[in-house]
From TrEMBL:
Keyword entries, A-Z: ATP-binding, Nucleotide-binding, Transport
Alphabetized PANTHER family for the sequence: D,D-DIPEPTIDE TRANSPORT ATP-BINDING PROTEIN DDPF-RELATED (PTHR43776:SF7), TRANSPORT ATP-BINDING PROTEIN (PTHR43776)
InterPro entries xrefs: AAA+_ATPase, ABC_transp_ATP-bind, ABC_transporter-like_ATP-bd, ABC_transporter-like_CS, Oligopep_ABC_C, P-loop_NTPase
Full protein name: Dipeptide ABC transporter ATP-binding protein
Family affiliation: Belongs to the ABC transporter superfamily.
Organism per entry: Nostocoides vanveenii
Keyword Glycoprotein in record: no
Gene3D superfamilies xref list: P-loop containing nucleotide triphosphate hydrolases (3.40.50.300)
Residue ranges constituting the ABC transporter domain according to the UniProt record: 6-257
GO MF, any single term: ATP binding
Pfam families named among the record's database cross-references: ABC_tran, oligo_HPY
Length: 380
């Protein structure tokens, strides 16, 4: 059994809602509301769920960018909330984050060299062999960019390249855990595949553990060993990738999967469509009992009053966790290859056309060059 590297216990984050002239607290946004799970050494835990369900908040809590309202996060058995500022600084080196938007997460006035070296400035006790410049060049190489472009600015790179820069910054301090908050959501489909492939390569090389937050179920399925499905600040289902995708037992997971595009037209008519009624309720006023009860087609009286706990349920082959009083396996036909993103992944695209130098200079440092002909991320 691999070691548990990160453990969240009953994590809660409520944001106060201020109102009136006196700006008094008139309510709470329950962004994350009692989430527990563990992340194992070397694994990728995918976190999926609709917009506003608390994925990013959870990501920030995991690396203590924000203090939880209650609950705790342990990194290798050490409870983060109990650490002094000094000890937390040390600990923070081991947990880094990669953000969604490569356009806004990089300072446009800084060179790529300065951006990637930022973690060394924040942690002066980490002195890379050969100095900062050498370390940055090595990092550029590691993420498939040309080390000679160290003095360029973010606008001189394409979206895919910028996300590679963000990843280089994320791994600069040689962390053990990388929280990836929608790292490929802003990228074109073909570029997504290349960046995900890079992340998988780095994971193997560096022994990283990933929390991979995304709303695209196909991307998450491709990269994840286990998957957590979130709904309104809570975890609805948690299991191995094949358990959650092939034998989901929470109605919400089943509905999400039924909305994923089936690429094979001969299978499309076989797939059940589960159409959810209504919008996601406000996290400031979540429904009583099971939070999904206002949209669930299986709802019973008990669901409205009694909150289901995230517990193991048999799935016919094994067992995994879900939070439903009436958990029951319902296979949603053929979701393995869900769209052309997955098709690219499944072909094992190793083409790195997104790293092509917009100025035309040769780049290719990482290329295992099979030249799949996948269109590159060519914007300058
Ligand atoms: N700093 C904050 N102050 C107040 N409310 C916040 C804050 N950060 C997040 N929220 C609220 O908490 C809820 C969860 O937000 P969060 O960003 O974690 O969701 P998400 O799942 O990452 O959504 P998305 O898929 O759109 O990125 C939302 O209702 C959001 O408006
Ligand atoms: S507990 Fe009830 S409302 Fe909630 S998901 Fe299960 S069946 Fe639906
Ligand atoms: Mg988010």
């Amino acid at each position: 059994m691999p070691e548990v590297i990160l453990k969240a216990t009953d994590l809660v984050k409520h944001y106060p809602i201020k109102g009136g002239i006196l700006r008094r607290t008139v309510g709470q946004v329950k962004a994350v509301d009692g989430v527990s799970f563990e992340l194992y050494q070397g694994e990728t835990l995918g976190v999926v769920g609709e917009s506003g369900c608390g994925k990013s908040t959870l990501g920030r809590l995991l690396m203590r960018l924000e203090e939880p309202t209650s609950g705790s996060v342990e990194f290798q058995g050490v409870e983060m909330q109990k650490q002094s500022t000094r000890d937390m600084r040390k600990l923070r080196r081991d947990i880094q984050i990669v953000f969604q938007d490569p356009y806004t997460s990089l300072n446009p006035r800084k060179t790529v060299g300065d951006i990637i070296a930022e973690p060394f400035e924040i942690h002066p006790d980490v002195v890379p062999k050969g100095g900062h410049r050498r370390a940055v060049q090595e990092l550029l190489e590691k993420v498939g960019l040309n080390p000679e472009h160290i003095n360029r600015f973010p606008h001189q790179f394409s979206g895919g390249q910028r996300q590679r820069i963000g990843i280089a910054r994320g791994i600069a301090l040689n962390p053990k855990v990388l929280i990836c908050d929608e790292p490929v959501s802003a990228l074109d489909v073909s570029v997504q595949a290349q960046v995900v492939n890079l992340m998988e390569k780095l994971q193997t090389e560096l022994g990283l553990s990933y929390v991979f937050i995304a709303h695209d179920l196909s991307v998450v399925r491709h990269i994840s060993d286990r998957v957590a499905v979130m709904y309104l600040g809570k975890m609805a289902e948690l299991g191995d990738e094949d358990q959650v995708y092939e034998r989901p037992h929470h109605p919400y997971t089943q509905a999400l999967l039924s909305a994923v595009l089936v690429p094979d037209p001969t299978l499309r008519h076989k797939r059940e469509q589960i159409v959810l009624v209504g919008d996601v309720p406000s996290p400031a006023n979540p429904p009583s009992g099971c939070r999904f009860h206002t949209r669930c087609w299986k709802v019973q009286e008990v669901c409205k009053v009694e909150e289901p706990q995230l517990v193991e349920h048999p799935d016919g082959v094994s067992q995994h966790r879900s939070a439903c009083h009436f958990a029951e396996v319902r296979t949603i036909v053929e979701t393995t290859v869900a769209d052309n993103t997955s098709l690219l992944f499944d072909k094992g695209v190793t083409d790195h056309s997104d790293v092509a130098d917009p100025a035309g200079a040769p780049v290719a440092t990482l290329v295992e060059a099979e030249g799949s002909g996948v269109p590159g991320d060519s914007e300058p």
